[in-house]
Amino acid sequence: MNPSPVRQVVVVGSGTDALLVAATLKRQLPGLGVTLLRDPDAPAPDPAGESTTPAVIQQLCTVLGLQGSDIHLHARPVWTLGYKCLWGARGSFYRSFDQSLTQGIPGFRTEPGFLFADGPMDSGLLPVALMAAGKLFPKDGANSFKPIENLTGLNFRMELLDALLLRACKSLGLVMKSGKIAAFDHGEKELRLEDGSSLTADLFLDAGGSARPLASLAGNTGWISYADASPCTRAATLRRRRGSEPIRPYTTLETQENGWRWRTEHDDSIGLGLAWNPDFLGEDEACAQLLAKADDASLTPLVHHWNPGRLAAAWQGPVLAIGDAGGFLPPLASLRMGMLALQINWLMRLLAETDGNVGEACRGNYNKVVGEAWDECRDFHAIHYRFNTASDSPFWEMARATAVPQSCAALVDLYQSIGPAHLLSNFLPTWPGAVGIDSWIATLLGLGVPFRHHPEIPAEEKKAWESICEQRRAVAKQAVAPELCIGAARRSMKPEPRVAFP
Most buried residue, 38, 51, 169, 318, by CB count within 10 Å? Predict the structure, then answer.
């Protein structure tokens, strides 16, 4: 029997996941009826905010159709070039969003990864050199800078991003309803609410976060745990005032005795988080450590109980769990919203190319593609634990012993043999992968993971590479600080007289 076509969709959820899913579906598939059901008692967004990758800018602008000026005016994000990781055998390293580690350099026989491994890692890529110098974008003349937005992510305060996405939903003409779920009838495809009303649809999307209010009610509870690869199951977050300290052009990840800490930059504030394992650290002590770092005892940390993993099959029958409802990993690599975009876009493709006639084959395909992406992200988290030798505490001894790559085990094993060669891209479980081979190589290099094969680098190539690095350091030294870039971008929306950069 042919499946009934999907013509009406109900999206359940109140936060970023639900707003982005509903708005994107309505804009890309305008003939689709989309209703957004929001819980009036939904919790407030995470105060620490969220760091994202360049893929999220593309999703907001290219797919959803938001203008960059609207994003900067209403959501007030801060650009980020990547991460500074106080992590691994090197003690620290930078990881950018640059995807050129596997691209050959004209005139060089040596692959870029081996050039990085042979020398300092703070200037081989321009974004890395900029981060090391504390700068954001290169100068472009005396009074301007040259954005490299294809290599930047955005840091968001989630309440501001949610407000922007809500505006988008309203402008697209979505039907929005407030209510609490009471029951779900599979046969009738009917969602019943506590106020006695009901919603019917051909497809229901649970974008209600890790609580999974609809998927759990519909019986989709098969869970694949990632706790071995991501052993921190508790976290506390807060946001403090910035004061006079400069904005960092990166997100900071820092090894702690019983877990790790992160810092997310905002224009007028700083988001802080501490992740830990409750077998090694108590909640009161963890919160005290975070408050001491924030240096503001008046703040109250928000405590999170994490359950890393994914649903065995996110799409069952008429209910699809998407975003955090379908899987969860901590914000160690800022992959959350990128994974959400991957899920939205694959669902849209299935709906568009089948004219909504999605049956069991489409559901199986979606579950396979998304499941493989989650598993790759799981292994990317795992290597951050397995190869972090910055601490010999009992927690980190346990983490190194348990965090073993699975779907990407062949890739990691081959790296330890042949090093950062382009051949590794052939060992990703799927191409191009949810993380990307450049991010894999940059992280394995940064962590200081040893490899056995070290090709001899010709003297002339070493000299040429040193010259390239020196040129990038010089550009970075003269580049523009984050505060000036952000201020100039916002003034351009409300023009003011231009002044020369110092």
Answer: 51
Report how far residue 215's alpha carbon sits from residue 328's, in angstroms, rounded to the nearest whole number.
15
Q: What is the CATH number of the domain that holds 184?
A: 3.50.50.60
β-bridge pairing 82-86 and 78-80? unpaired
Type of residue at 68: G
**Residue after which a domain boundary falls, among 305, 327, 362:** 305
SS3 at position 394: helix
Which amino acid, 233?
Answer: T
Q: Is there a single domain that holds both residue 351 and residue 439?
A: no
Domain that holds residue 279: 234-305
What global pTM score does this model have?
Answer: 0.95
Question: Are 96 and 127 spatial neighbours (Cβ–Cβ below 8 Å)?
Answer: yes
Tell me the pairing of strands 198-200 and 234-241. unpaired
Mean pLDDT along residues 492-500 = 55
The mean per-residue pLDDT over the stretch 280-301 comes to 97
What value does the mean pLDDT take over residues 214-224? 96
CA separation for the pair 223, 210 (Å, rounded): 12
Among 61-75, 411-425, 448-462, 484-498, where is mean pLDDT lowest?
Answer: 484-498
